[in-house]
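Suppose a classmate hands you a notebook page containing two proteins, each written out with its sequence and a corresponding row of structure tokens. How would you begin to make sense of it? This section walks through that situation. The first entry is reproduced here exactly as it would appear on such a page.
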Amino acid sequence: MPWLAYGTVSIVWGSTYLAIAVALESFTTYGMVAVRFGAASLLTLTLGRLLREPLPALRELPHLFWVGTLLLGICNALVVWSEQHVSSGVAAVLCAMSPAFVGLLTMREEPLGARGWIGTGVGLTGVVILVAPSPGHSIDLRGVGAILVATFLWAVGTLHHRRHVHSKSVLTNAGLEMLAAAVIGLVVAPLTGGFVKGIPTHKAALAVAYLALFGSCLAYTAFGFLTKAWHPVRAGTFAYLNPVIAVFLGTLLIGERFDARMGLGMAVILGGVALVQYRATGD
């Protein structure tokens, strides 16, 4: 089950960067947050009730709402906003910083070990190769800065969930966290340009539906399970695989830039994932 969850998060979240780029044709940042997580929370909570999951303890509710606010209401919104300034592939690559932040935040209580740190370093080297400036190509620093803030806060929220949420009701937990983000979207969207930029196109509407059903209901629930099943740094290496999917889809479907240097960077990233996973197989 952990490997199934890992594969789901790696592949599905890798594809969501493209879906976000398409949805931005019609939706504002917080309009997308409101619609995506509003629909996803209703679906996930309904499924949790149908499966008769036990409700989380009352003392866990503030933690669930805080994690939902941090991961989805803030971090996800920052990534969505950043894709107005950087390509979907570059956004996915920069989000690969999250396992390193988790490692730094947990290094005292859960040492990563030599091989784990080497793997993390190799993965980050691949990130550097991917985003390094080259002739005729530059990256908007506003988008880069927003994603780096998002990845750090994602690490903080992931660790908070792991330490303070002990309920095994994976669907209900995810649904409540997404509900918190949806409420934030409903409040903030009218203050930041509304929900849509015009009449939504069919492509944009389908993209948001995909984000709600697959990116949120399926992958976010799988992520919640994964953070309990594996060491947080090991679980976080899905962020090293997301760029491979994102760059491939962005290049194939919307003509985003791809060259040999990016191919080398992705190969190095995969090498880092292998080292971290090999180190963590005994955890």
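The notebook's second entry, a different protein, reads as follows.
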Amino acid sequence: MTAAITTQGVGVLTPDWPAPRGVRAAFTLRTGGVSAAPYDSLNVGAHVGDVRACVTENRRRVREALRLPAEPAWLEQVHGTAVAELEAQTAEAAADAVITRRPERVCAVQVADCMPVLFASGDAKVAGVAHAGWRGLAAGVLEATVARLGVPPAELIAWLGPAISAAHFEVGSEVRAAFVALDAKAAQAFVANTRGRWQCDLVALARRRLAALGIAAVFGGGWCTYADRARFFSFRRDGRCGRMAALIWLE
């Protein structure tokens, strides 16, 4: 079971997956920072309207609490399929996934309802993380990330981080159509509601995509950002809010 812990006052989740030795990962919660409402308190997003000094301090606290070997590579996320390769610490890149083959380079994506998906190879030689909201999933961000990792899918493990659950994620018919057009059985991840719309199960959709790629070792997927206000930011629930981070690095 994924464990929620506090490290030096900073709230984090430790993924419940059998990552090989040498692979480290964490997911930051909303607690333990300095930001004021509606970004209270551990907001790591610099693009949401929060005071920049607060974001800088929050990121410093995360770095210190997790003993990160470097500042995470913060992406400019656009709900697309671009994958950055972190061979050196670089300026912010426009991408929705990032991988690394070098130790002490920290991959990160920011989320507040979209699903972060961590990847690691069994030999601990490559790792990465993808930002997978419905647009990214439909467009193929997981497939693009796996292709860039360059490892046979059977040799990868994946972890699905906290995201909005089907009970709270209402979408229109165009979202369902985007998935069903490529995979008729993806319809199983959508349940009609009384408002003529659909409840969308991101976890089920991600698992289908990963299974189709040949990744059998998939973990996580049990936390709802919308339902747990104390731990998680949720854009769908609150509108203006902070961002959490899914982080992975090689030691």
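A careful reader of the second entry would note: The first strand starts at residue 3 and ends at 7.
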